[in-house]
Amino acid sequence: MKDLFIKYKLVVRFITTFLIVYGIFSLIYRGYLEYSKTSKYYPDYVTNLVAKQTRTLLEALDYRAIVEPHPDEASMKLIINEKYVARIVEGCNSVSIIILFASFIIAFAGDKKTTIFYILVGSVLIYSANLIRVVLLTAGLYHYPWRKDILHNVIFPAIIYCMVFLLWMLWVNRFAKLKGRNE
Known about the structure:
The protein contains seven helices and three strands, in the order H-H-H-E-E-E-H-H-H-H. It starts with a helix and ends with a helix. It has a three-stranded antiparallel beta sheet with strand order 1-2-3, with helices on one face. It has about 180 residues and is mainly alpha-helical. The protein has helices spanning about 1-5, 10-35, 45-60, 95-105, 110-145, 150-175, 180; strands spanning about 65-70, 75-80, 85-90. Helix 2 packs antiparallel against helix 4 (about 95-105).
């Protein structure tokens, strides 16, 4: 058994680091969500921000958009041209995906400065792509409500997860220091 740990030291280190970092970030995020229950931003600041930015972008695309708190659940209702189209919940704010992304990058960390910079740039890219995803999904649901399942459950998640995967591959192939970890 010891020989297996030595042979796969890099894999064990990656998995252990990833799980620890992911666990810590997830606990911090859970605490943030608990704290947000007493905040003036409903349901939480980031979800509220995504909803308002979605409205702004939809208005720039010439839709009449309204965002308002959902009366029955922790979400924001998105109304386009007087038609209730979608709700923006905590899962739509990209924070969970950013936590997953950052945990992977830290588990394959390069030098500290590059790692921090890459996490920041990658997080901004993921947040921005997610915001565009929510806008396009909302517009798609407005025009093609019968395509809700494929739009919401297949196409748009695939876009964001493919982007994260490509950012991971770029990191591993260009910036992570793997050579020194094998020795």
